[in-house]
Amino acid sequence: MIGLPTRTAVLPIPPKQLFFLTLLLIAGLGALISGCGGDDSSGDDVARGAPSASDFPQVEGKTIDELLNEQTPSDKVISPAAVAFETGTNRYPFGVFNVDRSQVEDADVALYFAKSPQSPVEGPLPAEVVSLETKPAYRSKGAGTAGEASSFYLTDVKFDRSGPWLGIAMIKTEDGFEAARVTPSPVVGQFPYVAKVGEKAPEVSTLTPEDVGGDLSKIDTRQPPSSMHGDDFKDVVGKKPVVLIFATPALCQSRVCGPVVDVAEQVKDETGDGVVFIHNEVYNDNDPSKGIQPQLTAFGLQTEPWIFLINKDGTIEKRIEGAIGAEELRAAVEQLKQKNGV
Fold first, then answer.
1. Which end of the chain has fewer CB atoms < 10 Å from its terminal CB, N or C?
2. pTM of the model
3. Ranges of each domain in the chain
4. Which tens digit of pLDDT belongs to each residue from 126-147?
């Protein structure tokens, strides 16, 4: 992984060094999972709420290794879906997989973290299961088929120091608990060049239909192309609230970019009045061999998908890495609208 010397420099990052961190790719799990849901789905993205923290082993002064060793070792793989963490409270999405690469979609799971083997433990942090489904009208071609993620796990974790942390997961079973390490464990502050909340968003230009003679396939790999290309970001940033999505539905190695863009399409129609939604692809000319687009480099990104919610004064209100369901994005857009008087 390459560090970025400045946020606005255009640094060509070879595709193999552009980490596409999501539910499927980490730990060598290029999983092909079956999406769920038929045409009668309502698009409700909450698959299952988080279990109670009291249902899991309590810390009680134990070290993280003691907690791990007290439980039956699990053969499940716990794969983080984000890597850009800062000190403070962080959104922590992740996936759970069997050894045969199939996705575990209905487990009761809690995470625990510690700065070192001797440090106090943060946890248990129960995770909810979030669906990536949308209403049928917003599903792109290929949605709900093998190769697209259908759900993910989500919790919050507070990191009080920079540097590497240790993470474990407790999975509730009929006989008690299984425990597994989170792999890779988070490294807080590892990506300091990602555009931060409170900063001015880089004033990059994004392509519109006029730039490509109306051929949206040149600027969007989704089928059909998304409806989020009507505005050039540089023309609206600092004037209107913006939701800016970096994702490549057809070329995303992780297979959550398509669902995330579908989610954004639905939320745009449901709550997007007064807010500009812009979808920006990842690769130059939609060709991985040509490297990533300068817009991603300007925002300091080496992973995708990302969503930035930007105030009408041009400051970043919120940033979201990895998978997101419709309910969470809807709430974030409503908060953006309220703050900006829309």
1. N
2. 0.86
3. 16-188, 209-339
4. 999 999 999 999 999 866 554 5
Tokens for 87? 């000190």
Residue 295: both structure tokens together? 């817009």
Contacts of 203 (CB under 8 A, 6+ apart): 233, 234, 237, 238, 314
Q: Which residues, 6+ apart, have CB-to-CB distance to 178 below 8 Å? A: 71, 72, 73, 74, 76, 170, 171
Q: Which two tokens stand for residue 199?
A: 């900063």
Render the burial of 222-260: b for 16+ CB within 10 Å, e for the rest.
Answer: beebbbbbebbbeebbbebbbbbbbbbbbbbbbbbbbbb
CATH class of 209-339: alpha beta
Instruction: Classify residue 273 by burial, with Cβ atoms within 10 Å: 0-12, 13-18, 19+.
Output: exposed
Residues 261 and 140 sit within 8 Å (Cβ to Cβ): yes
Nearest to 131 by CA among 312, 263, 243, 286: 263
What does 145-205 look like in DSSP terms, one character per residue? STTS--EEEEEEEEE-SSEE-EEEEEEEETTEEEEEEBSSPPEETS-TTSPPTTSBPP---
State how far the alpha carbon of 315 is from the alpha carbons of 176, 196, 201, 203, in Å: 47, 9, 6, 11
State the helix-helix crossing angle for 326-339 and 257-271, rounded to 10 degrees. Answer: 50
> What is the DSSP-derived secondary structure letter of residue 219?
T
User: In angstroms, rounded to a whole number, what is the distance separating the alpha carbons of residues 321 and 285?
Assistant: 23
CA angle 290, 262, 219 (to 5 degrees): 30
**Angstrom distance (rounded) from CA 322 to CA 83:** 9
pLDDT digits (tens, 9 = 90+) for 296-327: 999 999 888 999 999 999 999 999 999 999 99
Query: What six digits make up the tokens of 163?
Result: 């540097």
DSSP 182: B
Residues in the chain, overall count:
342
